[in-house]
Amino acid sequence: MTNKSKIFKNIFYKYFNSLTIFAIKFVDNEEQARDLVQEVFIKIWESNTDFNTEIALKTYLYFSTRNICIDYYRKNKGILLVAEKEDIPYEDNYFNEIIKEETYRILDEALDTLGDQSKRIIKMTMQGYSNKEVSSSIGISLNTVKTLKSRSYKKLKIILGNELIIILIVCI
Predict the structure, then answer these.
(1) Regarding the domain delimited by 1-98, which CATH topology (the fold level of the hierarchy) does it fall under?
(2) Fold entry, domain 113-172
(3) N or C: which end of the chain has fewer CB within 10 A?
(4) Is the full-model pTM beyond 0.90?
(5) Cβ-based neighbours of 58, under 8 Å, separated by 6 or more
(6) Which helix (H) or strand (E) holds 75?
(7) How far apart are CA 149 and CA 31, in angstroms?
(8) CB 25 within 8 A of CB 97
(9) Range of weakest confidence among 70-74, 104-108, 152-156
(10) Is residue 156 scored above 50 in pLDDT?
(11) Please, which residues have CB within 8 angstroms of residue 16's CB and are 6 or more apart in sequence?
């Protein structure tokens, strides 16, 4: 595998899910959103474009995804944009969605550093489950849930640093 292939593979795995979720906001169909995001990555691969910074890459990815979704929408007018359904100003919605998807991507990467059980506990907590509900669902003691949760939060705080505040604001 060439160096270019490795870099491309890393970019693909890092951004594909976030871009797909972002695209779903436009086309309201997960399978179609995946196809459109794959097209964006194919264009990147074929263009041999180099990006000087990660910000330039992210900007390109999100704008390209948005544009390909808009093109798809124009060709298939029977599908309404989610932004239109919600009567949210289009540009505001677009930038809010980018912020949300980037936040979830960063949080997901941080959660992947936790053990399986700790990750499950944190995700259930984020979904609103109480410690008692988590305990009975997973089949471990309440004290174990509390301990793993506390250790996980400490680890996430170290990993996320200043980004933790942004994540809390976006997720709340």
Answers:
(1) Rna Polymerase Sigma Factor; Chain: A (1.10.1740)
(2) Arc Repressor Mutant, subunit A (1.10.10)
(3) C
(4) no
(5) 15, 102
(6) helix 54-75
(7) 35
(8) yes
(9) 104-108
(10) yes
(11) 37, 41
